[in-house]
Predict the 3D structure of the following.
Amino acid sequence: MFAFIRNLVGVKTDQAVQSAVEALVRWDPKSATEAELRTMEEHLDRLGLQVAEARAAYEKERKEADAIRALSRQRMAAAEHLQRQLEGEQDQGKRAQIEKSLETLVAMLEQMAPDIDREEQDERDAQEFMETLQATYQEAGQKLKSARSELSRAERDLGRAAQQREAAERR
């Protein structure tokens, strides 16, 4: 029973707030419109901050992926160099050392393959998230620009209508 009364009070409070907002809008529509535009600007500002954070996260992920790819390329080049040395080496003692070094490098390359895949996936995910946020930011900016333009057009139309009414009254 208590939950029902609490929910009923909540509904009535929501209705009262809605009625108050509607009365304020009817009383001063220009201020209400400006308030809505400011709300849109605040939303756009928050989106801008999120885009900046997403861009920073993407840059971090890109650098990590670049670093691990560079390390992989470096190790691969070292392995290829050791392979060429091994092919040209005649001394069995040196061959054994080169083979051991080559095996170590190949093992390191195999171990880092999942890390490379994970870093590249993290980079792609961060880029997709950043691009999605950027598109949302662009869309919100366009909506705000359109709303401001429509408000200016409506104010001009109202001014023109008032002038026409005054001219008609004078006649």
Summary: The radius of gyration is 33 Å. Residues 100 and 141 are 60 Å apart (CA to CA).
